[in-house]
């Protein structure tokens, strides 16, 4: 039998440490939290990642390249080719597209993409246009209005 082979009896349980129950108990007075300071106070202390007021790492890092946006803008996208079914000189908004059944869900403000061709003159009101979409709408005799 060696010291490193000794183990407690199967089924036995070690008694939990009761801190703050007097100096004779071994963890009295400050209860293992030391004297004064933020970490000795009751409660949880600081949240994970807190660096004493310094800009924490999880907020410093995304300023570098190749990190995804924290709050990316969400757009409901539609291609120029899908606008061909609408009547000429009509006004195109997100609400009108939903009522016509061209767009099925509102995922954010409307963004018009430039895939396909447009043969109808339309007044398109959207939050954003790609350069090719704007060019195709104006070439068809329509106009683009940016709304917030």
TrEMBL record:
It comes from the Bacteria. Residues 23-35 have a biased composition (Gly residues). Residues 11-20 have a biased composition (Basic residues). GO terms for molecular function: rRNA binding; structural constituent of ribosome. Gene3D superfamilies: 3.100.10.10. One of its GO terms (cellular component) is cytosolic large ribosomal subunit. Keywords: Ribonucleoprotein, Ribosomal protein, RNA-binding, rRNA-binding. Coiled coil: none annotated. Binds to the 23S rRNA. Belongs to the universal ribosomal protein uL15 family. Part of the 50S ribosomal subunit. This is Large ribosomal subunit protein uL15. It comes from Stanieria cyanosphaera (strain ATCC 29371 / PCC 7437). The gene is rplO.
